[in-house]
Amino acid sequence: ERLGSRSWGSACCRIATYGWFRLKGARGADGDGCILFLNTHLDHRSKMAQDEGSRLIVRRLGELESSGPAREGLPHLGTVVVGDFNCWQAGSGGECGSAFAIFKDAGFRDACTEAGGANACPF
Question: Most buried one in 19, 102, 105, 114, CB count within 10 A?
């Protein structure tokens, strides 16, 4: 959790960055809202680092969502996570890869599957 540190057998230092973004008119006549957007790059060698990094991100997102955006009174409309997870989204049997399963278990949905069904994502 320290900037520039390595852990869980990672080959490189990894990072996640986030920001709250205002969506003007997102709620129609009710006004603006905001989304929490996070970008990450998980380790390319250590499965443990991918899984633990995913758990850390999910935990931090929960904390950020609980505290809300810096601008008071602006409703949180959703959270988007993007990045290079450096792992397969699904195994050969269709089961969710462990890093992706951590996000799925936390209530996240992946856009590829949502757009085209369970077998739509080639990764």
Answer: 102
